[in-house]
Amino acid sequence: MKRYLITGMLIWVPILITVVVVRAFLDFSDYALLLIPEAYRPTEIYGVHIPGLGVLFVLLVLFFTGLLFRNMFGHFIVEMWEHLVTKIPLVSSIHNGVKQTLKVVFTTNKSFQEVVLIEYPRRDCWSVAFVTNRQAAHGDFKHDILTLFVPTTPNPTSGYVFVVDEQEVKYLDMSVDEAVKFIISLGTVDDIGHKIKAKKQLRT
Q1: Per-residue pLDDT tens digits for 54-102
Q2: How far is it, in rounded angstroms, from Cα 18 to Cα 33?
Q3: Fewest CB atoms within 10 Å of the CB: 81, 170, 179, 198?
């Protein structure tokens, strides 16, 4: 009996939450239509509410905003705006936090090159890390020098940065997206032990 109830919950709860979130997003997007002068709103023109038009309007606004601010004049306006925002104590913290989070979300695949394991925070305890930079060996480093980002869980937008010798890591046969899902899910979505690659030849 208990097993059937749990199975039913695992099927219906994600569906219901998805429906609620999508519905809330559609309703929230429809508020964006209030930015349009009343005479030109779809409800005034067609005489009926059309669900989803708010999403289309938001996407168009985002697209043309990006198109406008990609040029030199747009960059100047953005810099002026951000300079103004940094002068407001509480607002600057919120603005910078949201901006950094969005940068991580939308540039993850560009910033992170490979997924590895690093022995941290103690011996025989391994953490998932992303390779963000690689340099040729020099100084006290015998092999390639790796810059690693070790994210926290379940929020992978914060973490630690380490610079290590390549021999200190184990490479994983895992994409960046798979690794992010692994971290957010608290390690429940994959068997990471089977993802460890064979030790590769290191450059000296």
Answers
A1: 888 888 888 888 887 777 777 777 788 777 877 887 777 777 777 776 7
A2: 23
A3: 198
179 by Cβ neighbours in 10 Å (0-12 / 13-18 / 19+) ranks as: buried
The rounded distance, in Å, linking the Cα atoms of 87 and 91 is 9
CATH topology of domain 112-195: SH3 type barrels. (2.30.30)
Phi-psi region of 124 (alpha: psi -120 to 50; beta: other; left: phi over 0): left
Place of tokens 């993802």: 195
The vertex-119 CA angle with 113 and 124, nearest 5°, equals 145
Weakest-pLDDT range from 27-31, 68-72, 76-80, 183-187 = 68-72
Taking a C-beta distance cutoff of 8 angstroms, is the pair 11, 18 a contact?
A: no
Domain boundaries, the chain: 2-64, 69-107, 112-195
